[in-house]
Amino acid sequence: MKHSGFDIAFLHPRYWLLWLGLGLLWLLTQLPYRALLVLGRALGLLMFCGAAKRRHIVTRNLELCFPELTSAQRKALVRDNFISMGIAFFEMAMSWWWPQKRLRRLLKVKGLEHLQAAQEQGQGVILMAIHFTTLEIGAALLGQRHTIDGMYRAHKNPVFDYVQRRGRERHNTDSQAIEREDVRGMLKVLRQGRAIWYAPDQDYGPKLSLFVPLFGIPAATVTATSKFAKLGRAQVIPMKQTRLPKGQGYLIELEPPLIDFPGESDEADCLRLNQWIEQAIREQPEQYLWAHRRFKTRPEGEAKLY
């Protein structure tokens, strides 16, 4: 990965407010970890009270996926989910700016041997991740234990993109950022025996997707995981990250590689992935990114859900 270079244009007055905000965030990030958790909780509660549109999306997703919950239980889960998003804001800053030694103290990891075994065999690995709110810090922590590449989408604001990429690059000095649309680039790194972070759990539209159940709802699910595994001759290793309670840090879990994957059909593969994704979400629903409209794309003739 080529390091992002500083551009003198970043000093233009139109970016001053952003630089000021980033500077204040850097200062706050120097606080103790437990203090940042408190600040994140307060930010999450503020968003819960003020972000009506996002609150509606989260609530609607939970209505669809957890119909068995009472109204009070669902409201409490929505609140907890916003708290998790607020904490994630400071976790992002921690992953960008904390000294690596300080970050490492928060890491617990299980199953790293599965990734190491594949790499020793020279086989590429798709780290099948999920969009939990801890994804930024999870990738940073794992990157300190093993080189991983990642799918990347440039931010529209060049200053924010510069800061974000520098923050991510420092954990993986020899890693590669693959543009999300660069299929050839992804297959190339897989065939080189590298590991790449990939999350197939969001709605990317009807193109190259199949409708298979997720929480009992037909969900547009990309078939790319199967195709990348086949064409890249790669293993698929499921990956989860969890924010542990009471400020104990983070647990990253790497499961054994999927057996007989790809399988008989794209539909069977997508169903298998969605079943694993659903199980993983049910383990910590408050930490999932419910603010995404996962069921936006509907089968032809079906009513919109949002």
From TrEMBL:
A motif (HXXXXD motif) lies at residues 131-136. It is a single-pass membrane protein. Pfam families: Lip_A_acyltrans. Keywords: Acyltransferase, Cell inner membrane, Cell membrane, Lipopolysaccharide biosynthesis, Membrane, Transferase, Transmembrane, Transmembrane helix. Its main location: membrane. Its EC number is 2.3.1.241. It catalyses: an alpha-Kdo-(2->4)-alpha-Kdo-(2->6)-lipid IVA + a fatty acyl-[ACP] = an alpha-Kdo-(2->4)-alpha-Kdo-(2->6)-(acyl)-lipid IVA + holo-[ACP]. GO terms for molecular function: acyltransferase activity. The chain crosses the membrane at residues 12-29, 81-98. It is found in: Cell inner membrane. Pathway: Bacterial outer membrane biogenesis; lipopolysaccharide biosynthesis; Glycolipid biosynthesis; KDO(2)-lipid A biosynthesis; KDO(2)-lipid A from CMP-3-deoxy-D-manno-octulosonate and lipid IV(A): step 3/4. It is an enzyme of class 2 (transferase). Belongs to the LpxL/LpxM/LpxP family. Catalyzes the transfer of an acyl chain from an acyl-[acyl-carrier-protein] (ACP) to a Kdo(2)-lipid IV(A) to form a Kdo(2)-(acyl)-lipid IV(A). This is Lipid A biosynthesis acyltransferase.
